[in-house]
Protein: Glycosyltransferase family 92 protein
Amino acid sequence: MAKIENEHAVVKVEKEIEPLLNVREKACRSKVDLGGFHIKFQIKNILCTMVLAMGFFLVAAQLLPLIGYDAKFWCSVETGARLESLEDAKPHHQNLLAEASLHEKLDTSSIDLSHGEVRGFKPHGLATHLYIEMSAYRGGPRVFSIVGLTSKSIETHHKPPYACEWVSSSSGQVVKGRARKLKPDWNYGKLYTVVVNTCSFAEDVGVDREGGELILYASYGDQYRQPERIVVLTESKGEYNASIFDPQNFPYDYVYCGSSVYGDISPQRMREWMAYHAKFFGEKSHFILHDSGGFHDDVRKVLEPWIKKGRVTLQNIRQQEVYDGYYHNQFLVVNDCLFRSRFMANWTFFFDIDEYMYVDRSTNLSAVLNRNPNATQIIIQQVPIATGMCVAENTTLAAGHERKWGFEKLIYQKPFIRGVHHDRKYALQARHAAATGIHMSINMRKGRHTSPRGIRYYHYHGTINKRDDVCSIYVDPRNQTALRSHGVRLDKTMANMAKDVKSYERKIIGKLPFIL
Structure:
């Protein structure tokens, strides 16, 4: 009964307010004449339209994310695992570091974030990379050499270890090796420092000629980051060839390894150096040059004939400038060349393109190098040449003087003072070196180093990037030898060889343009 009474009460109230509603409806009703049509605007209609519109908008907002739905992705096992891991994740504040460092693989589980006001630290940019890979070379059935750069700050403060392994392509078998790290740049590095890793195995790897991969693990040296796995060398099936390790099968007698060449190099000086040493080392020699910006178009013009003859390999290393190391990454380059030339020749020479090797006429290069059978490295003495000092008689014919080669004109030697350090250069048997430097290697595995007589090099400092005449001081031809006030003495050793060198160049590659 109570329910029925309430219902009648409601009906009664509605009947009582109906006249009031009609009055308001009439007050809010208006007519607009549009070509004979009468459009009535009512509050009820407007409210219903707005409610429907809002409902449609809310439904669309819910369905919009499904436009990019990919069943293959969202139904995959991998994605399911990720979703499960997210559901099990700890509260948001405990993942601040991980979220702020999405470009790093961080493990921050050891950091206690359970108390206090947790602050986040967001990294921006990248100061240095952990490891810059350049090259890796096989040194035998069970040893490899890996050359690269690493962040100097990480190397200095964390001293991160390295590890290596061999993965067989045929069986997938993993063989663990031992990585020995060497830093051959004597701490000269800047943002980056050179690191050479020797990876040794207790057994032969890859000798079945089925191929495989050499893996290097580069560590950050802390507990928060996992080591980076880097495939540094891949051998294809049938690539392994044990015969290359036999010195009797080396294709050359001598290999030259050049440092990073940069700046505005004189094409004519490069031409002179190349022709001289092509003759000096003989037909069974090869030159590996490294272009760090110095081999511009005019220089390449004088090198191209030698490249076509197979005497020169030109390596473009300009990208190394991105990674700031010592002297255009000179240590990196010479170590790469060391291992590249390891099984190319018995002796590899390291010196610059403003330096000229010379052997006394009473002997020859082979005799000097092989004089001591236990020597695997020879240190070569420098003869410094006075910069810009020439004999005035060379200026009597302007055209003839200009066409003379640099080492024809510069004929005054600085005195060699005992007790004063002079730069030295060297040659070594690359297969016996674990790493090398600019002036010598201190990482020879076998033998000893000597400084034999009969070989030296002439250093024409500052001439290679001089794009005009090398002469700036002229000596009276009537008094060529009396120069005590200048502290120099006459030395025409190299000048006397110019005629034969020019003849050799014309014979091998023909006439070249004279481009200062």
Observations:
- The domain at 131-244 is CATH 2.60.40 (Immunoglobulin-like).
- The longest helix spans residues 2-28.
- The mean pLDDT is 85.
- The two ends are 120 Å apart (CA to CA).
